[in-house]
Amino acid sequence: MEKITINDIARLTGLSKGTVDRVLHNRGEVSKKSYQKVMDTIKELGYEPNLYASLLARAEQRTIALLLPAHEPGTYWELAAKGEAKAQAAIKPLSLVTRQFNYNQYSADSFREACARVLESNPAGVVMAPMFQYETQVFAQELQTRSIPYSLIDTKLETPGYLSFYGIPAYKSGYLCAAMLIGEGPVKEVLIVRIMRDKGRQSDPTVLRRSGFMDYMLEHNPGCTIRSLFIDPEDPAATDSALDAFFDEFPGVRHIAMLNSRVHLIVPFLERHPIDIRVVGFDNLDANLDALRRGTVSALIAQRPEEQVHQAIQALADRIVFQRFPEKTDNYQHMDILIRYNAEDY
Amino acid sequence: MEKITINDIARLTGLSKGTVDRVLHNRGEVSKKSYQKVMDTIKELGYEPNLYASLLARAEQRTIALLLPAHEPGTYWELAAKGEAKAQAAIKPLSLVTRQFNYNQYSADSFREACARVLESNPAGVVMAPMFQYETQVFAQELQTRSIPYSLIDTKLETPGYLSFYGIPAYKSGYLCAAMLIGEGPVKEVLIVRIMRDKGRQSDPTVLRRSGFMDYMLEHNPGCTIRSLFIDPEDPAATDSALDAFFDEFPGVRHIAMLNSRVHLIVPFLERHPIDIRVVGFDNLDANLDALRRGTVSALIAQRPEEQVHQAIQALADRIVFQRFPEKTDNYQHMDILIRYNAEDY
DNA sequence: CTGAAAGCGCTAACAA
DNA sequence: TTGTTAGCGCTTTCAG
């Protein structure tokens, strides 16, 4: 069984290497007839291109753009950004590099502007974490007309022709959060702490989480009162006093959930008032893990954001270099449950 | 800054490509003088060979051997074997293939014999899940003298010069299991169900798990009595009656742990006797997941064995093709906690 | 001991 | 729309 090459299929079809190469990379300039003939015999013989030869002959570097919210240290997106490094190493031998473009996750303008920069850089592929429904649509449209493949992470917005999506199921994650918080036991009241400015966001992923959370409560603990409190992430003092005021008014609350990655914001308060409160949050930020280890936070639901970007980049690389499509378009990831005793090797 | 090639250094030294190649792979037939000259200018110019050109010119397929316990359907090692397929796809473009060699995990002879077959196949690298301390040492030794790189998965035995290890921390996993089983609450007695023939094994990974389990109990629940029961995986009827007898004698037991992947073996019994018992086991076998969904098993600790073999293969491929060494030698993986509400997307 | 030369399989520029 | 051709950088005879 000989390795079959581009020459073989050129000979078999009666065409030339050049033409075969053109259909292989469908860069047009080929008649329908030739195209079909080549495709058919490729399939028939099970031809697979030789990567080494290809890479050797090509020798130019393509780049994959990452379009992510800006990542201040200690935030969720910093975790995600870590996946870039891993992926870099993996795709470097394929003559691919990554390049990051950041935007302010609270400003649609900034997102639009970042999109423009991405397009300007003429990438071979794009990984994006979208926050704004409309702007993302427009951008996706543009990518498609330029036939630049793109993958989504974190939030799945309905955009045309995305290559693949990687993230956790938002609704289910809220459901799970509720289960971790109250189990089966009857609980009279719980508190959901929310972030102020999230209110204004167009596409807030915590909306779905909240609805999953609510449904679990309805199904398992219908009598429970669910209270909300909004805090300002920029203002720790205000957060403290808001919590103080809350517990003055509702001293019986023993269960708190936060449906975003910021549970660490309420940790100082909790540690200053040693009531025995069960707290469940999301994501393995260092500050969250510390609180978990100290026992202030009972459980975290985590989602390996670095894996999400890693996988998205890999999928794109496969697509770009090997013309290979991912097995599944929507890849819902496992939700990791972290407690004190399994957080160490995370 | 131009890429410098073998031609450059041929020109610079006044020798030919052929000679340069000879010193590059020190296969002799070169005068001392020429050798020195080449070496010097290589260092001077910081020459790095182009892998693709090299690989292309060489054009042979190398194979990575997997040395794993035989995997009957529905067993742990079947899960692990799944990782092979994924990795196959990833390394195929590098002209690498995998080939599996199986042994009976209860027979050292069979292991030794499998090792022999692996060596005979002259692999470019080896991934192994070792079960027998001494035999593994001997084999590892042999691999090292032939300078065949190898990685370990699942169980880390102290062998010389392994490339990397992938698995969960055994002791900690037992500790975690105990935590999942009894939490902080005081419990009077717990049952550990064990597999009969594991007793005779030389390198039983559950030994460490058991000691982690015991330590958690000592630290958090010192008064608790820990009972053991041995069952025969081949004999469901005997398993049932053993459990019957056990519960006749100790009707108060409400907590069961199994420190291996076989918790499904006791599920039929449990479902026939609807007492409210908390059960914790290991690994995401289908039968275990089913029991988890039905609520018979409360929690599973899982370790993504397919990822372990996938990563081990990748590491080897990187080593073989790109001469790259893994970032970390010992890669302890996260222990996944599975409960009903997060098992679906696993 | 050394050099010359023929590829490895694919890409891309240029002609036709 | 298609064919031709000159490499990409390295390996490997084979003749000297």
Describe the structure in your own words.
Two copies of one chain form a homodimer. The first copy, chain A, has 346 residues and is of the alpha/beta class. Chain A has three domains: 6-57, Orthogonal Bundle (434 Repressor (Amino-terminal Domain)), CATH 1.10.260; 62-168 and 305-338, 3-Layer(aba) Sandwich (Rossmann fold), CATH 3.40.50; 170-302, Response regulator (Rossmann fold), CATH 3.40.50.2300. The first copy, chain A, has 13 helices and twelve strands. The first copy, chain A, has helices at 6-13, 17-24, 32-45, 51-58, 76-91, 108-120, 133-145, 170-182, 206-220, 236-249, 267-272, 286-294, 305-322; strands at residues 62-69, 96-103, 125-128, 150-153, 164-167, 189-195, 225-231, 255-258, 278-282, 299-302, 330-332, 336-338. In chain A, strands 2-1-3-4-5-11 form a six-stranded parallel beta sheet, sandwiched between helices. The first copy, chain A, has a six-stranded mixed beta sheet with strand order 7-6-8-9-10-12, sandwiched between helices. In chain A, helix 1 (6-13) crosses helix 3 and helix 2 (17-24) crosses helix 3. Chain A starts with 5 loop residues before the first helix and ends in an 8-residue tail after the last strand. The model of chain A has no long low-confidence stretch (mean pLDDT 91). At the A-B interface, helix 4 and helix 8 of A face helix 4 and helix 8 of B. Chain B binds a DNA duplex (16 and 16 nucleotides) through helix 2 and helix 4.
Please give the domain count of chain A. Answer: 3
The chain pair with the largest interface is: A-B, 29 and 34 residues
CATH C-level category of the largest domain in chain A: Alpha Beta
Which whole number gives the mean pLDDT of chain A? 91
Can you tell me the residue ranges of chain A where pLDDT is under 50 for at least 5 consecutive residues?
none
Decide which structural class fits the backbone of chain A: alpha/beta
How are the strands ordered across the major sheet of chain A? 2-1-3-4-5-11
Distance between the termini of chain A: 46 Å
Annotation field: number of helices of chain A = 13
State the CATH topology of the largest domain in chain A: Rossmann fold
Subunit arrangement of the protein? homodimer
Task: Report strand % of chain A.
Answer: 15-25%
What radius of gyration of chain A results from the CA coordinates? 25 Å
* Largest sheet descriptor of chain A: 6 strands, parallel
- Percent helix range of chain A: 40-55%
Overall shape of chain A: it is elongated
The CATH superfamily of the largest domain in chain A is identified as Response regulator
Give the SSE string of chain A.
HHHHEHEHEHEEHEHEHEHEHEHEE
